[in-house]
Queue: 2 jobs
Job 1
Amino acid sequence: MSDKIMAYDNGSGEFKSGGALSTQYLGLALKSPLVVGASPLTRDTSFVRRLENAGVGAIVMHSLFEEDMPREPMDAFAPPAAHDDFPEHCWTRPPQRGHAGTYLETLAYIKNIVAIPVIASLNCRTPDGWVQLARRLADQGADALELNVFLMAMDPNQTGAEMERQLLETTHRVRDAVTIPLAIKLNPYLSSLPNIVRQLEQIGINGVVLFNRFFQLGPATTIEREMFRTSSPHRADLAMRLDWLAVLSPWTRLSLAITGGVHGSTDVVRAIMAGADVAQMTTSLLENGPDYAQPVLAEIALWLQNHNIGSINELRDVANMATVAKPQETVRSEYRDAIAASAMRFTAEHRY
């Protein structure tokens, strides 16, 4: 393997790419385009160092929900006094076994043990909650903030425009409250995604993440208990995200990330080619463990070498809509071709 693209450092066990995989996201320098998406992985801080050693570019912490904060005393997050004899103890010890520790304690601890960017994830339900908790996360040292906005239309009197205005107002309040980079995780059900992204860019957001996934409310099995059902992201989920990356990336200056459907090296490469700056992975890391990131990144590095590509950044945007002369006509034509191909397969499979 060439000097520029090394897969492993056998001495330390850490992934090394020699800069071939380094990129930028939200204005932050990342050693690779593979980011750990918001998930329970960061609840166990023993996994965090392993993720960094495996080569991930950044970590998105599990979401902090506004409803959870009353259980965490607000004065518990104050930094140690200047005259404290051992201030490091407060910031270097892991949260105690037996309880998760407060979110802010976990954030401070993770920041202390890794060098890669740590992105806090926030999910609130009130305007004041968004602002106050965003400030606390920024003050605690988060390198960036991912706004996990959960808006679901349930009121027939509320219009789509009203919901989108609420989204924009929330984002504007948080942008005014903090100076760290902000990304917002959107859902795919907005009336005009490109228009919303343009308005977010005008507000001063630094990036968008495509897409949020909603838990689906299943039927109640008993009067007392309701069951929630959700399925793991499938590779089929990736197609919609790639399509929207291809639409957004030619004209927006925002950082773009995808989450959902990213399971291996090919998925990461396809995302970059469609215009993503990074690809977030969650399910495969949960299923295979933190070290799974290492072979994924090694495969990407080897693929780059085999194709004589010196940097992952050379791939960005090579398959977005800017490469298509007439995007609307092309999309419609591909849709018609897909329908026709499906009909031909059905006829062939069921012909007697």
Note: The chain is about 40% helix and 15% strand.
Job 2
Amino acid sequence: MHKLVMNAGSSTLKVSVFDGDQTVYKAQIDQTPTKITDAQWNALFQEIRDNSGDFDVVLHRVVQGGWIFDGPRIVTPEVIEDIRSLTPLAPLHQPPTIATLERTTELLPGVIQTVHFDSAFHQTMPEEAHTYAVPERWRTEFKVRRYGAHGLAHAYNARKAAEVLGRDLGSLKVVSAHLGSGASLCAVNGGISVDTTMGITPLEGLVMGSRSGNIDPEIIPWVMKQTGASLDEVMYALEFESGLIGLAGDNHMGHIMDRYREGDERAVLAVTVWLHRTASLIASMAAAMNGVDAIAVSGGVGENAVDVRELLAERLAFLGVALDADRNAVNVPDSVISSDDSSVAMLMVQTREDLTMLREARELLGAVPVF
């Protein structure tokens, strides 16, 4: 039987069907799952069956598991309600996932369904890494702490880095750099997350496509007082009008790099701010592990922006990173792009959250991992 992997986003639903670890079918609905009708759902399931046969397990990606979930779970009504209770921590991502879970469990009775959390990988972080220095009541009553995101990608990146390097994951210190429109870093020590850059929500950390990343919290009330804007308006600006958009007016790194090469001032500022924040936080991830053996870059920017990787490597020379220009330019997925004499390996990884989900599901259901 095949496995159906569902990735519910704020504006799309992506589905993949797997036979073992091989993709046999893909489809996408360019509509938020909260607005997909039962007729569309049934048509999708029939299309999947017509093209790839039946499936016996449905796997769902969930962004936020908060303090409740430290690993994958089999879907039950109680699990769905727990996921719903975490919506304030991921207000854009959680509702489409809940809508998908509700419709698939109703329309596919008897089919096992599992949920896989982007935050669960980071539940291994030590207290010193996940604790915010805020009042105790916030931490105990309101569960304020660092939860992180992109855990499915970071887990895959670390395992793939070990595989490519021919090293034992258990003894490898990897900084996983998932660099896309949404972006985060993770310090993976011996296969375990010990620090990450996203926080209680995905707004903290790196400069992203439209998100600010780290800022002084006092900016929020200051802007409210200066402009008369409401809290919701300021938070919207930090989520959707900041990051590369706020700096360059564009969230596409390829377009920004074209302008950067032409000397466009806003593009130069955007690229250099992005590089400064990314390099400094990579260094902080290395510090969390007391060293680093490898840096694995992935995501839309990490996998495609050859020139950005080159500029980033230059900023990381103090860690011992030396890029091989030819290897970098060839842009081969899952390969080493640093030179042979680089003391820290740099790799480009084509991340596969879906394979991490399959691995988790097979372990959860008592089968053999994908790899």
Note: The mean pLDDT is 94.
